[in-house]
Amino acid sequence: MFKFRIYIDTSVIGGCFDDEFAEYSNLLFHDFKSGKKIAVVSNITLKELKQAPENVRKKLEEIPQDNIEYVALTEEAEELSQKYIESGVVSSSYLLDAEHIVIATVERIDLLASWNFKHIVNINRIRGFNSVNLREGYQLLEIRTPMEVIDED
Questions:
Q1: Within the chain, which residues score under 70 in pLDDT?
Q2: How far apart are CA 54 and CA 79, in angstroms?
Q3: Rounded distance, CA 126 to CA 89, Å?
Q4: What number does CATH give the domain 4-148?
Q5: In angstroms, rounded to a whole number, what is the distance separating the alpha carbons of residues 123 and 105?
Q6: What is the pTM for the complete model shown?
Q7: Which long-range contacts (CB under 8 A, 24 or more apart) does 11-19 make?
């Protein structure tokens, strides 16, 4: 059975404890815990979590290790993030946001889920990221909110 590999950034994990985002972040975590989907977590996300409140840091522990995949920023991904900056998709001030995108792109993740509407889940940015991805020989990256990727049943 095919299982979506979904890259999650820190906003999705923290969203589990935010009134505005808790319902859908927790439903997505339920899909991870049950094994319907695979959570993909990067070293960038883990680094950001170190600065988060304890309940947010511990949220990942709820996902069985068989249902989580760890990925890291590679030299290839760093080179692609520079292409995003050179193309004006993001400024160097938001390099961390671009790094989430490049890791998911280089690792050929099925989709990236985020609540970051300013720098990630934004139609103009998505088009920009994907235009660079195509130009550089990568596939398109689906970028959605957790609300758009949960199972309805």
A1: 152-153
A2: 33
A3: 9
A4: 3.40.50.1010
A5: 17
A6: 0.94
A7: 11/114, 11/115, 11/116, 12/113, 12/114, 12/115, 12/146, 13/45, 13/49, 13/52, 13/56, 13/59, 13/60, 14/52, 14/56, 15/115, 15/146, 16/56, 16/59, 17/53, 17/55, 17/56, 17/59
The encoded tokens of residue 15 equal: 């969203």
In tens, the pLDDT along 135-151 reads 999 999 999 999 999 87
Give, to the nearest 10 degrees, the angle between helix 75-86 and helix 123-135: 120
Q: How many residues does the chain have?
A: 153
Angle at 44 between CA 59 and CA 99, to 5 degrees: 130
